[in-house]
Design goal:
- The protein is α+β, with helices and mostly antiparallel strands.
- Helix content is 19%, strand content 35%.
- It has a four-stranded antiparallel sheet, with helices on one face.
- A hairpin with a 2-residue loop joins strand 8 (96-100) and strand 9 (103-107).
C-alpha cells in the first residue's frame, strides 16, 4: 500500500471540497478556488473533515496513481488555506528588480529591461531590489512562474551572478589559473 496514498487529508476550517462526476474536484477556501480533474479510477471517501483516497486494485497503474492523486488533492487544500510561496534572490553588480503595477521589471545585465507580466492567480512582491517573492494558491503555477523568472538569467558557477532560489546552493567553479613562470 502506498505510504503517501493512504495518509488522510485533514480539511482546515473554512475549506470546502466538492467531488463531482468523473472526479472533478473543486476546493474552496479563504485564498481562492481551485478545480482539477483527477484520475477517474481513484475513489474518495469523506468523513467529516477527513478525506481518504482509495484505489480499486493493486495494478501497477493504480498503485502509481494512488499517491499522486492524494498529493494533488492535498496540495489543493494547502493552497486554498495557506498558499504557496517561492523566493528568488538576484545576485550581480547592477542587477535589480522592481514591480511596476502588475509587471516585474528586471535589470539583469542585458542592454534592455526584461519585463514579465504577473500571471493569473499569482502575486509578485519585491520587498528589496534584489529579492522576488512569488505567491499563489496553485503550487504548479507558482513553481512554473518562478522557474520562468529564474530562466531569464540562471546563476552562473564562476561569480554566482544571476537569479536563484533563496534555498538553492550554487556549485562554484574555480576560474582559469595562470601558467607559472620559471
Amino acid at each position: 500500500m502506498s505510504r503517501i496514498g493512504r495518509m488522510p487529508i485533514e480539511l482546515p476550517a473554512g475549506v470546502e471540497v466538492k467531488i463531482g462526476e468523473g472526479n472533478l474536484v473543486t476546493v474552496k477556501g479563504p485564498k481562492g478556488t481551485l478545480t482539477q480533474q483527477l484520475h477517474p479510477a481513484m475513489s474518495f471517501n469523506q468523513e467529516g473533515s477527513v478525506i481518504t483516497v482509495k484505489r480499486p486494485n493493486d495494478a501497477k497503474e493504480n498503485r502509481s496513481l494512488h499517491g499522486l492523486t492524494r498529493t494533488l488533492l492535498h496540495n489543493m487544500v494547502v493552497g486554498v488555506s495557506e498558499g504557496f510561496k517561492k523566493e528568488l534572490d538576484v545576485n550581480g553588480v547592477g542587477y535589480r528588480v522592481a514591480k511596476e503595477g502588475t509587471k516585474l521589471v528586471m535589470n539583469i545585465g542585458f542592454s534592455h529591461q526584461v519585463i514579465m507580466e504577473e500571471a493569473e492567480g499569482i502575486t509578485i512582491d519585491v520587498p528589496t531590489p534584489n529579492k522576488i517573492i512569488i505567491s499563489g494558491a496553485d503550487k504548479q503555477k507558482v513553481g512554473q512562474f518562478a522557474a520562468e523568472v529564474r530562466e531569464k538569467r540562471p546563476p552562473e558557477p564562476y561569480k554566482g551572478k544571476g537569479i536563484k532560489y533563496t534555498d538553492e546552493v550554487i556549485r562554484r567553479k574555480e576560474g582559469k589559473t595562470g601558467v607559472k613562470k620559471k
